[in-house]
Amino acid sequence: MTEPLLPNTLPKRVVIKRVLPECRPLLIAMLRLCTYISAKRLDAPMTLVGLQPPLETVTYSNLTDADSRKLLTEALADANVDETRTKLLLDRVDHFNASVKSEWLTGGFESAAPTETRYDPYEMQNLWTEKNGSFPGYNCRITAFSLFGEFVTAGADQPETQGEDSLFMDLETLAADPAVLCGDSTSKFCALFAPVTAADTMEVADQVKALRAGWSERGISFEDSSARLISVVLHDRFSDTDNTLFIGHVGVLLPAEDGSLYFIEKVAFQEPYRLVKIQNRTELSDYLMEKYDTAWGQDTTRPFIMENDELMDGYRPNPLDSAS
Asked: Which of 65, 132, 184, 319 is a plausible cystine mate for 149, CB 3.0–4.6 Å?
């Protein structure tokens, strides 16, 4: 039978059923390499990013159990994240988890497809509202900033708020619970997350430059730390004059003792916290892009991933999308 190699890249006539079993792994690797070269990508670095198969399952915990909470606490401590920030995070994890049904959450680490959940997001949102009223809760940006804010600097001349059209729900939460900023300012939060002017192009490299330029104007800089801010950047072009880049999702990347990685995120305002285990940054890219790089036929740049203020090493477009 024909064995799948790199999705949507090898001609169907390539079959290897007559190859000795012990020789098949080598042949597959050679065919992948030949396909990679024939796709006229010789101008790109020849790394494992192009050869690594798409991520099919991801291992994660909703932090309901002692073991995963201990792993997160230790990883944050090793990255020199202040323990008061960790305690604040876990208090809000407890608040969220107590507001929804336990069967909607993992009992520890579980594996599933990147887009698979144990809950219906609309049912979860309704139950959250039933128990918490009009308070919207905490989203990815607030959660990441509450952990990572001490490693970000913003210019002293920044306004108290900016980007209100995009950050209005964030600002509603910050007004109701300013303590979640852990002593940081709304001004710094908005300087980091308010939309910036995009380049008039669909090229990722140009948009990375545009984002960095926008941050530079606001005095945004990142201190050195083993914790890293991972941002999914979305390009919105509503008109020639309304052309922006916006951080649509964000989390914090932490190294694990065994060389793998942890990614801590809040999926959405009324969706759970997740501690995700990944082996490398390309797995993280796939996990995020399979969820967020889903648009088609747009005159905008595909979503891309920043690690602090650089394009994340290992980033690639959604590998399940043949157009990528």
From this structure: 184
